[in-house]
Amino acid sequence: xxxxxxxxxxxxxxxxxxxxxxxxxxxxxxxxxxxxxxxxxxxxxxxxxxxxxxxxxxxxxxxxxxxxxxxxxxxxxxxxxxxxxxxxxxxxxxxxxxxxxxxxxxxxxxxxxxxxxxxxxxxxxxxxxxxxxxxxxxxxxxxxxxxxxxxxxxxxxxxxxxxxxxxxxxxxxxxxxxxxxxxxxxxxxxxxxxxxxxxxxxxxxxxxxxxxxxxxxxxxxxxxxxxxxxxxxxxxxxxxxxxxxxxxxxxxxxxxxxxxxxxxxxxxxxxxxxxxxxxxxxxxxxxxxxxxxxxxxxxxxxxxxxxxxxxxxxxxxxxxxxxxxxxxxxxxxxxxxxxxxxxxxxxxxxxxxxxxxxxxxxxxxxxxxxxxxxxxxxxxxxxxxxxxxxxxxxxxxxxxxxxxxxxxxxxxxxxxxxxxxxxxxxxxxxxxxxxxxxxxxxxxxxxxxxxxxxxxxxxxxxxxxxxxxxxxxxxxxxxxxxxxxxxxxxxxxxxxxxxxxxxxxxxxxxxxxxxxxxxxxxxxxxxxxxxxxxxxxxxxxxxxxxxxxxxxxxxxxxxxxxxxxxxxxxxxxxxxxxxxxxxxxxxxxxxxxxxxxxxxxxxxxxxxxxxxxxxxxxxxxxxxxxxxxxxxxxxxxxxxxxxxxxxx
Length: 648
Ligand SMILES: [Zn+2]
Ligand SMILES: [Zn+2]
Known about the structure:
Blueprint: E1 3-7, E2 13-17, H1 22-29, H2 31-36, E3 37-42, E4 45-47, E5 57-63, H3 67-89, E6 94-95, E7 100-101, E8 104-110, H4 117-132, E9 137-142, H5 144-153, H6 157-165, E10 172-177, E11 180-183, E12 200-209, E13 218-226, H7 230-246, H8 248-254, E14 258-259, E15 269-270, H9 272-291, E16 295-296, E17 302-304, H10 305-311, H11 313-316, E18 323-329, E19 333-339, H12 344-351, E20 363-372, E21 388-398, H13 403-420, E22 426-431, H14 441-458, E23 462-465, E24 475-481, E25 487-496, H15 498-502, E26 507-508, E27 514-515, E28 518-527, H16 528-538, E29 552-556, H17 562-574, E30 579-582, H18 588-597, E31 602-606, H19 608-613, E32 615-620, E33 626-630, H20 631-641
Parallel strand pairs: 1-5, 16-20, 22-23, 29-30, 29-31
Antiparallel strand pairs: 1-2, 3-4, 3-5, 6-8, 7-8, 8-13, 9-10, 10-11, 12-13, 14-15, 17-19, 18-19, 20-21, 21-28, 22-24, 24-25, 25-28, 26-27, 31-32, 32-33
Helix pairs in contact: 3-4, 5-6, 8-16, 13-14
Bound molecules: zinc ion (ZN) (2 copies).
């Protein structure tokens, strides 16, 4: 029998018979390791303990202490265990697919009656029984014919369809959890008892079309979350409750910021309050960009197909584009256009006008670019995931030698903005060369070093994501952590030698010859729409004063105070504060309650005592006590607070 050599994380190399499994390898190292083992990493791939190894490889054995593989197995095994539980309770339910997702998993079922909350409780109880039974998990390779025969005999049409979809040359792997089985790539645990029985919860049911296709049957998707222990699950459930309270769709209604309607799915009707946040943020961003040496441009919405073909979007991105056909000359010639899904190709058109010299570089070209992307309706989420949005987009045209300093400059730019907007916790991810790529190793070495050095020089150590870069260059991603611990990827910096090549951008170098510039695609907020959603949820609607759409309500206690109310509103308005009067014939407590729901940060109450003393009674959002201040003092204080952080 032939031998293979396995390299361990400590550099040790050991020889085994070909066909050895990671379970046997762990046993050979130490019985205690074999007992703790849950899976292995083999050349970076997550590997089942039962899968044989036929070639030399780098290997490490995973235990429950390794969070990423442990959580993946817990969640993936639970998807299978849930499907088994459902079919044990209701044998006529048809199974489909059930992937792992953030914090948990889901599984889609075809069942005539809807699942009720009681059903979810019953399924959970059955799942716990399956876990406690410690049923062995087995993996088998099946032939296509056997798999088809098996699923046809059991009346599982979705599985039959899935088997047909798997390429002919690919093995079909079956996973058994006890005597229930599912078509699955794996890996999995060794027995069901390895899943913590007290650290998962089925959260909700939603409709989902089979394969996301609205012409196919509507299935029922059951969602679950799972963790390594009960405390983690509890913390997550608390976070979800908090997140529901902060949901930007709910706050958007209460604060009267925006609405959306059926006639324009995934697009936003901004109301005056919401648009005030938007324009305030945009004004702020425009000032930052000017200060940092950007020029601002604006490019067309509707662009001929030819440009998208040249840029590669037509080939690779068409299913996400809105195609617009125009009948230009009677019916004789049709022109096919697309709404722009990205601004980059248009920016290269501006760069390409006129001869550029190395002395012109870098050119930092910014656009608040309105883009349209077709997202499936199931993926839409409030103003966070939409079809029409505006990026704080820019492209930096530069030489390879300038990439490092431009990247450092951008990281510093972004750090200041995040801090101004109230996010002090964020991190940088560096994604490097993937297996399938273009360009020489020498260029990749330079590109990766430039981004890595830029992070270190700016003082922000990066996390490395090997193999996650685009096929033409590495990238940086910037991930914010919000007030309740959720992560949001907002900023990006994608290096790109590819698009300038495709669209024939060039400059004249010091040597008098033509050269290709590099492009840096970069965004700080991502899109205004999504970022405003994040801001609302991060601050639970209590935006920093300068961003609050309604900053002050001046409320009368008696109608004789009305003239002074108007005087106060005028004084605040002239001082640059967004102030409005509430002179309705309502009780002051009623007014305070209503404006608190609307998240107005400051309410000034005025009765006859205040009129006589030319003072106001100040009530701040979230506080129950009031304080009396003179008109001049409150105007001065609020005028200062209304300034954006960069103008103070
Ligand atoms: Zn599976
Ligand atoms: Zn771009």
